[in-house]
Amino acid sequence: MEIYAPKLHLIEVQSEKRRINVAGSSQPGRYRLDLAWEDDDPGSLIAVHLRDDDGGFAVVTTPVRPSRHCNVHGWDSVAVKIVGQSPTGKLRFCAYRLLATQTQGRDTLLVLSQPPSSDFMALLPDSTALGSVAMAGTHETLAFFGGPISQCQQPATGLYEQLESGIRFIDVRLKVVGTQLIAYHGPQSQRLDFPTILSTIHRFLQSHSGETLIMSIKEEIPPFHPRFSALVERDLTVFNDDWFLENRVPTLGEIRGKAILLSRFERVEEKEWLNGLGMHPASWPDSKPYVFEWDCSGTRVRVQDWYRVGSFIQIPEKYRIVVESLDPSLDAQLKDPSFTLSFASASNFPLALPTTMAKGFGWPSWGVGVRGINSRLSYWLLERICAGQKVKACILFDFYRQTGESDADLASIMTAMNFI
């Protein structure tokens, strides 16, 4: 087994019955364990003792043999016990067990420093380009109602909870109802008006002034309403100081305590949006299985938004397209990265419901069922971390806390990726 604990220090590895030899590596944070005896004692546990530079101590305990979930999904989360908190309390730990791959040849115990999910951006330098941050987002952020056809997020993960848990891109779809803007997904009202959404964002930014977030706004049509643009501007103006409305991709230092608008609608009259529409693509191709690009005042914005699949049989194909869209962001040599936005969501009634595509179905751990996109992407992201790579992109998920049968969620994995 290999231990990879970037920016952490291994103190010792203990077993209930045996002494474990640990070999260092030329790569910082990597250690190899001699577990040649595992076939003789497969039920044994090993305890890995670690500390961070901030004075925190933790113990990660894992069986010598991987769990059933790990054998099926390729990964699993591992419990971490904090035995000594750092004086500042800034960091905590998270751990994952990954099965051996052909390239690695051995199982990996991955242990990461986990910053506070509600304030992780505050720990990044002001000069950080937004496109170089690993960010989790939610597709149809407010789609809590409508059953299996319309629901894309768990009701327990309301907007404020999403932001607290590390979500930094929100996808809002609005419809004009009378003189109000109401969140909708298709024909289903999500029972939330736009001023309440803006008030929630304001409250979060007031409490977490080192953070930022991006909000995409799109009109849920048909029918197209001629006053949509004016009504969005009317409601947003009340919170105007919270918003960055320039059509460019800023650095973190420019937009801490503010939200960035990404407008997927057009102004109807020239007198509207005199301060700008925020990041504003000239077009947005509908459900194309490739990455499209636009220039945002000198920054190349790359978007993958293929969602209209035929059935759940295309889960592997959707997963492949997401991964291919993210591959260019892994280049560590990029000094001025593009901004990559990739939707992990997909659906089509009746054979590719959002919940089926994201979570899969059946009991994959028992060999009956299909793994969803979320579980597959979790494994891929963890593999990238094990390889010392960071995804410099924003990925939008349905049911971001549902990754199979593990306790881990995708926002936590993406957040931790910024600190390897």
UniProtKB/TrEMBL annotation:
Q: Which SUPFAM superfamilies match?
A: PLC-like phosphodiesterases
Q: Which GO terms describe its molecular function?
A: phosphoric diester hydrolase activity
Q: Where is the Phosphatidylinositol-specific phospholipase C X domain?
A: 126-264
The record's InterPro entries line, in alphabetical order, gives: PI-PLC_domain, PLC-like_Pdiesterase_TIM-brl, PLipase_C_PInositol-sp_X_dom
Name any Gene Ontology BP term: lipid metabolic process
What Gene3D superfamilies does the annotation carry? Phosphatidylinositol (PI) phosphodiesterase
Alphabetized PROSITE patterns for the sequence: PIPLC_X_DOMAIN
Pfam families assigned: PI-PLC-X
Give the highest taxon in the source lineage: Eukaryota
Record's PANTHER family?
A: PTHR13593, SI:DKEY-266F7.9 (PTHR13593:SF113)
Protein name in UniProt: PLC-like phosphodiesterase
